[in-house]
Amino acid sequence: MQPVARPTTWQPVAVEVSLTTTDDAVRVLTGRRIVALTGAGVSTDSGIPDYRSPDSPPRNPMTYQQFVGDEAFRRHYWARNHVGWQHMHRTAPNPGHRALARLEERGILAGIITQNVDLLHQEAGARNVIDLHGRYDRVICLSCSRVVARAALAERLEALNPGFAESIGAVGDIEIAPDADAVVAETAHFRPAPCESCGGVLKPEIVYFGENVPRARVEEAYALVDSADALLVAGSSLTVMSGLRFVRRMARDGKPVVIVNRGITRGDVHATVKIDDGTSEVLAELAERLSPRPSVQVMAARH
């Protein structure tokens, strides 16, 4: 299984794709059972910045090795997350999330594999969602594996650090990364909370850079991809193998891949259609124009 680590060899290189319009995507996807693979770009219109779009500032997310190996790194992370979590909790689905949920409801979309941890697909109404990189609303103990709600931890962190979030400014004025990490400089005085059961180290139930996606979750995603006739990638540069492997799988099997993303992606060489545009607009149009597969229409008529 491939680690979710940033590749050091791939550099964005433009690949010419002959099909580049929404009309092309409609022709390719019509009548097919579709699976969506989404990345941070699908949530930017909800106010959550991504990592690699052309306008994104440079970001260096904390790695798994840093988190588990250095207490100072953990303190720094939890201080920033304590602020950023409040922002994530107030975000709402955008038209792209809602469009995918409509496609699923109509039987066109079989499910969503998301690299995001923000749960906005579920809030939009999508039911079959694989959270490939975990969820921001849960925390796990690295010693006893106990899982607790992030909301419960927030109360403990606030009790240990009264007024910390307010002391650094309003959440709306602070830059938030896709994993709920806020850009906060001074964190040395922050007090993290240990596991209430065993005193162990708590970690968000999120797959960090340099950490492996659980095998069972990967196999579930492969099974969903293998059941589909086409893959719709939305808002992902596909820089990490975690998402790219599903694009390669579809291409290997001779199934069409439609990519909607601003800027070059690592999967462009496998794309049947590549639309360089915003996900909200394109997904909303696809939801309006794609019709259910014939078998789905027949079943709906019988009921």
UniProtKB/TrEMBL annotation:
Q: Which PANTHER family match?
A: NAD-DEPENDENT PROTEIN DEACYLASE SIRTUIN-5, MITOCHONDRIAL-RELATED
Alphabetical UniProt keywords: Cytoplasm, Metal-binding, NAD, Transferase, Zinc
Per the Swiss-Prot or TrEMBL record, the active site comprises H133 (proton acceptor)
Origin species, per record, is Myceligenerans crystallogenes
**What cofactor is needed?**
Zn(2+)
Which reactions appear under catalytic activity for this entry? Answer: N(6)-acetyl-L-lysyl-[protein] + NAD(+) + H2O = 2''-O-acetyl-ADP-D-ribose + nicotinamide + L-lysyl-[protein]
Enumerate the residues binding NAD(+).
Answer: 39-59, 115-118, 235-237, 261-263, 279
HAMAP family the UniProt entry points to: Sirtuin_ClassII
Q: What is this protein called?
A: NAD-dependent protein deacetylase
Q: Which residues bind Zn(2+)?
A: C141, C144, C195, C198
Tell me which SUPFAM superfamilies the record gives: DHS-like NAD/FAD-binding domain
Tagged with keyword Metal-binding: yes
